[in-house]
Automatic annotation (TrEMBL):
Localization (cell): Cell membrane
Entry keyword Repeat: yes
Keyword Nucleotide-binding: no
Organism of this sequence: Medicago truncatula (Barrel medic)
Top EC class for this record: transferase
Keywords: Cell membrane, Glycoprotein, Kinase, Leucine-rich repeat, Membrane, Receptor, Repeat, Serine/threonine-protein kinase, Signal, Transferase, Transmembrane, Transmembrane helix
The protein's name: Putative non-specific serine/threonine protein kinase
Enzyme Commission number(s) of this protein: 2.7.11.1
Amino acid sequence: MLGFTSQIPIVWLLLLLLSTTIFERCNSSNTQLGISNCNEKDRSALLLFKLGVENHSSNKLSSWSINEKNCCSWKGVQCDNITGRVTTLDLHQQYLEGEINLQSLFQIEFLTYLDLSLNGFTTLSSFNQSNDHNNNNLSNIQYLDLSFNDDLHLDNLHWLSKFSSLKSLNLSQINLQNQTNWLQSIDMLHVSLLELRLSSCHLTDIFASVKHVSFTNSLATLDLSANHFDSELPAWLFEHGNDMNISHIDLSFNFLKGQIPKSLLSLRKLETLRLSNNELNESIPDWLGQHENLKYLGLAENMFRGSIPSSLGKLSSLVDLSVSSDFLTGNIPTSIGKLFNLKSLVIGGSSLSGVLSEIHFSNLSSLETLVLSAPISFDMDSKWIPPFQLNGISLSNTILGPKFPTWIYTQRSLEYLEIPNSRVSSIDGDIFWRFVTNITHLNLSNNSMSADLSNVTLNSELLFMDHNNFRGGLPHISANVIYLDLSHNSFFGTISPMFCHRLGRENSLDYLDISFNLLTGEIPDCWEYWKGLSFLFMESNMLTGEVPPSMDLFIDLIILDLHNNSLSGNFSLDLSNITNLQFINIGENNFSGTVPVKMPRSMEVMILRSNQFEGNIPPQLCNFSSLIQLDLSHNKLSGSIPKCISNITGMGGAKKTSHYPFEFKLYTKGRDLEYYDYGLLRTLDLSANNLSGEIPSQVFNLVQLKSLNLSRNHFTGKIPRDIGDMKNLESLDLSDNKLVGGIPVTTSTLSFLSFLNLSNNYLVGQIPVGTQLQSFDASYYVGNPGLCGAPLPICDHGSYLHGGHNDIDNDENSFTQSLYFGLGVGFAVGFWCICGPLFLNSAWRHTYFRFLNNVFVVVGFSN
Ligand SMILES: *[C@@H]1O[C@H](CO)[C@@H](O)[C@H](O)[C@H]1NC(C)=O
Ligand SMILES: *[C@@H]1O[C@H](CO)[C@@H](O)[C@H](O)[C@H]1NC(C)=O
Ligand SMILES: *[C@@H]1O[C@H](CO)[C@@H](O)[C@H](O)[C@H]1NC(C)=O
Ligand SMILES: *[C@@H]1O[C@H](CO)[C@@H](O)[C@H](O)[C@H]1NC(C)=O
Ligand SMILES: *[C@@H]1O[C@H](CO)[C@@H](O)[C@H](O)[C@H]1NC(C)=O
Ligand SMILES: *[C@@H]1O[C@H](CO)[C@@H](O)[C@H](O)[C@H]1NC(C)=O
Ligand SMILES: *[C@@H]1O[C@H](CO)[C@@H](O)[C@H](O)[C@H]1NC(C)=O
Ligand SMILES: *[C@@H]1O[C@H](CO)[C@@H](O)[C@H](O)[C@H]1NC(C)=O
Ligand SMILES: *[C@@H]1O[C@H](CO)[C@@H](O)[C@H](O)[C@H]1NC(C)=O
Ligand SMILES: *[C@@H]1O[C@H](CO)[C@@H](O)[C@H](O)[C@H]1NC(C)=O
Ligand SMILES: *[C@@H]1O[C@H](CO)[C@@H](O)[C@H](O)[C@H]1NC(C)=O
């Protein structure tokens, strides 16, 4: 031991001695001995660059100190160890902000490598054009990477002209939206560019018809993925044919149309061709099979027609193949079974057909991931031993069942197993659960698996088991589980076996969905074991009793949904310290007492409908300034609407979106509609209570509201003209109240309005004419004895004069204007709004987490 430790200090000491002597010598004799100490000019240029960063963020580049003379030891700086001149500046991912002062970097004459990627720079100081002749030194920079500075918007690329030695240019994820001549700017460089990456730059024009650009002579890598190109594949990419050096082309995630041109065959060095996620709509050419150097071929998520050519089986170098399109027909060719180098195979198409057999996989001994999404059945011998050991299998929307195939059990190193919507109903109990126990990501959604899980312990990190026939008591879960969706099954019994079962260590559960089952009994007071939960869905069961006090321990909770159970008592939890909480739905229960307000200010959605809450609407609700949805309907609330309601800026002020999109059902427009992202909605529903008094004008200041429902109360007074300010309104229900006066003409300026119910009030006068107000059914106006005009019977002179003349007078000026607004726009947009909400016929309950679920597939498809 002693010998060991005593040696280390000696080494250290030597090093220390060495470095101090070097340092001193350098200081005294200034690079005479060929040891790096930086050039004074380079140093001051770097300090100038630092200023641009420092002005926006303090303490960045702190090692770049004025006191440290040797700039070669500064973070990210490398010098030539003979000349002491700065050659490399690599500051990627240093959280830098502010300005990239290019002019200062240009003064570093020997700089060849500049990497400022993955930072937060917002501006790039261009060169001062009028200074150009005094300062026409050209840069030696060969490698320039400014990518992933997401907030950097560049209006032009003129400054690139100085980079006369450039070999590699990466401006990915920089906004070049206004740079309409990007291709020409790069061509003007007249350099031997080897790599060009402009991925995700908001580019719109790929200049498909330009035949000639010179930079493609040398180019080896071209990445133009994730832009907005919507033409055919560009001619300039293929024009030099055999002379071209290009080996890597990525045009995926655009909107490219048409076909793959045969001139592609002349790109003999091509190894990677990524065209996935476009709209290519001709057939997949047969001649592709002649491109024997191809290693990565990405054709997924296009609109290809015809069949998958069997010539693809000739691409013997292929490592990665993805093909999918809903217009592809026919079988999957058996020739793919010859691709012995293949590691990843992705095939998808809802119109493909046929049977996959062992021949399809005969030589795929290198295969690691298999992704298949097509209505294809499997004909494998139950004793088949595949030639591969996969780490990922995704077979979705296939005809895999009814029995879980035995060949999958031969795969000993699986990390992902997804078989959603694949008609599997039968699993071999213990064998299956033992097999999946070490699989990280398991998706069994939307099959009809029926098994009693009360003795099973789940162990995967991500578990999607929704929409099956799993029954019995809830399974046990290990401390590894992060995400668990057991919704839409037939689990029964109480929750306590799962939740009061103490685990060896702190559990990881973040997301739990046990909604839409047959669970009964009380919610157990065992939540102290589950403090890490962020998402908890227990709705649509038959839970009873009060909500246990330990539920306020959920310090990380974001979404809590308990609706449609039979819970009762006061909802007395104090959730005000749960600062992340945004969404609570305790509707359709039997909660009583006053409206709960012990919630954090950040609340966005509060749904308390269909309970027994009584008393007034508490003014504390006005403190929830972020609130975008409030539903207190179908309770026993009385009194009037507090005037402070306009303090809810979420409904009145600037628009913002929420970030947990998941399917969400909302009662609006007279029916239940499913929405995809609650963050986009703004609703206030106070219907079916005993509220009274005039509707305060402040309600009509909530101008972001899309749905306002005050029906079935005792409101009195008139509908104010201000209603015309609620320009976002799509659904308005004031029916079954005691409202008087006319329908303000301003109502017709609500051009998004697609649902209106004013029935059963004391409204009078003529329904404003010539607007979309006529397109609503007459039943939405009936029960107002003094109301007339289309769609109700036409006004006789008497009732018209008697009722509406006040309002008509007031609104005369805006009438013509509203006529124009009301027509056209109102109709079109109204129609859109009806069709707009997404009715996801989903196998997936929570779309936010769908990304987790699709990570694997996306990885597979990303090529
Ligand atoms: C930094 O800010 C100061 C004063 O705000 C200004 O004079 C200076 O020019 C700025 N420097 C850079 C590099 O932006
Ligand atoms: C300069 O640095 C390079 C790379 O670190 C090294 O290979 C080379 O030997 C060094 N030259 C001298 C003279 O120290
Ligand atoms: C341009 O290069 C010349 C010669 O290398 C040098 O003297 C001059 O200072 C440089 N100009 C600038 C602005 O860097
Ligand atoms: C460019 O340089 C000229 C001359 O030095 C100066 O007058 C002008 O203000 C500069 N422009 C900018 C935008 O810095
Ligand atoms: C930018 O492109 C270069 C050249 O292809 C590559 O080496 C580099 O990793 C890219 N930068 C980032 C941040 O991806
Ligand atoms: C593009 O130009 C338009 C009009 O000049 C401007 O409004 C917009 O902000 C610019 N966009 C970017 C990303 O610079
Ligand atoms: C072709 O690309 C390779 C890199 O893949 C590069 O080393 C070579 O210099 C390029 N050839 C030409 C002629 O530019
Ligand atoms: C799961 O992993 C553990 C630990 O790596 C190992 O001991 C066990 O045998 C594995 N179980 C199965 C069924 O593969
Ligand atoms: C669960 O395990 C218990 C005890 O081992 C056994 O009595 C019971 O039948 C099992 N239940 C199921 C559904 O397998
Ligand atoms: C909320 O936090 C405050 C301050 O940390 C604390 O005093 C208070 O007791 C907490 N309330 C609840 C209900 O936990
Ligand atoms: C509503 O906002 C006004 C002005 O900001 C403020 O004076 C008032 O106290 C607020 N009311 C409530 C109940 O928060």
